[in-house]
Amino acid sequence: MKIDLTETTSSKINQALVSARRAIGTPAIGMVLTLVIVTDEENAYDALKSAGDASREHPSRIIAVIKRVSRSPRSRRDARLDAEVRVGSDAGTGETVVLRLHGELANHAQSVVLPLLLPDAPVVVWWPEGAPEDPAKDPLGALAQRRITDAYSAENPGDELAVRARSYSPGDTDLSWTRITPWRSMLAAALDQQQVEVVSATVEGESENPSCELLAMWLADRLKVPVERTQSGGPGLTAVRMQTRNGVIVLDRPDGSLATLSMQGQPDRAVALKRRDTAELLAEELRRLDPDNTYEATVKFGVDKLGGPAEPKPAEPSPAAAPAAAKKTAAKKAAAK
After folding, report:
1. pLDDT tens, 70-109?
2. Can you tell me the distance from the alpha carbon of 307 to that of 229, in angstroms, rounded to the nearest whole number?
3. Checking DSSP bridges between strand 80-87 and strand 60-68, what pairing results, if any?
4. Exposure b/e, 33-53, CB count within 10 A at least 16 = b
5. Which of 94, 139, 152, 214 shows the smallest number of beta carbons within 10 Å?
6. At residue 80, what are phi and psi to the nearest 5 degrees?
């Protein structure tokens, strides 16, 4: 069921939600949280679809905030709120409210969203792209217990990770971090089986992919060893190699779907490690609303502490070859004279 409201108010939107629930025969509210999506028209459809799919695991009231930038100075002074209310099969397993804020109202989105929050329920704010520098100090972010960004959508993901580190507040997280959860689990399980000391590691993946940097920083922070970040053609993360005292542990995923785990003294094993869509990532983040201390330590570790590809060093002559090399050099000097 869909209800369109033009030049409306938060009070009228709440009334429309109650009327819609009664019309479809579900007057009770069974939702566990409020998910606020701050996006634009271009990305609204994909974001709402992902949130709707995630709501099958976490029934929620989804509020999409779309700020409409007016072109003329006169239009920018006019404040107007348009809304679309979706309940039932059109809204997954919860309710969806799409807010379009025009004019000056776009600068006061929190005053519109606040009356629409579910009472006594957690609030999560998600920026699919264009996240503020400090999500916790953003007017909408200040309403939330959990704030989700995505460094992958930034123009320069490496710089975006540095911004996320500087502005981190408890409750912040990033979907680039969520993408490496299966990798972290598999690598931790491999080390539990081997019980060996890791001396160095290499993380390989496509350029401009912040998940590669986060995985490398996680390994460097947890294992206290040098980690090298190298590039590949992708897709995404392609391999992790951990050098140990007993050999190399390799987790290789060349096709973005199936990986191979290789360890010294054991046969190679195929591991399902497919790239997950946004709905799965969002559902994982909604499972926990407490601060992620591991993410905090990782993002604050710093990309600049990672090693890059080492320059090959010229081979030094062996002691036995040194006299011969000296004679050769002297002969060259004599010929030059």
Report:
1. 665 655 567 889 999 998 766 667 889 999 999 889 889 9
2. 6
3. unpaired
4. bbbbbbbeeeebeebbebbbb
5. 139
6. -145, 145
How far apart, in whole angstroms, are the C-alpha atoms of residue 107 and residue 117? 19
Locate the domains of the chain by residue range.
2-175, 181-274
Give dist(CA 120, CA 167) in Å, integer: 27
pLDDT tens digits, residue range 191-205?
988 788 999 999 999
The one-letter amino acid code at 233 reads G
pLDDT digits (tens, 9 = 90+) for 214-248: 999 999 999 999 999 998 887 989 999 999 988 89
Neighbour tally for 288: CB within 10 Å: 10
Structural contact between residues 285 and 33, judged by C-beta atoms closer than 8 angstroms: no
Angstrom distance (rounded) from CA 60 to CA 36: 10
Sheet (strand 258-262) strand order:
227-231, 198-205, 237-244, 247-252, 258-262, 269-272
Give the C-alpha separation, 184 to 197, whole Å.
17
Give me the residues paired with residue 258 across strands. Answer: 272
Of the candidates 22, 15, 116, the residue with the CA atom closest to the CA atom of residue 65: 116
Asked if 254 and 237 touch (Cβ cutoff 8 Å), the reply is no
Token pair for 217: 């920083």
Task: Report the distance separating Cα 137 and Cα 154, nearest Å.
Answer: 19
Give the contacts of 87 (CB within 8 A, at least 6 positions apart): 1, 17, 20, 21, 24, 26, 95, 96
Sheet containing 60-68, strands listed edge to edge, beginning at the edge strand earlier in sequence = 2-5, 80-87, 95-102, 60-68, 33-39, 123-126, 146-149, 172-174
CA-nearest of 50, 69, 66 to 58 is 50
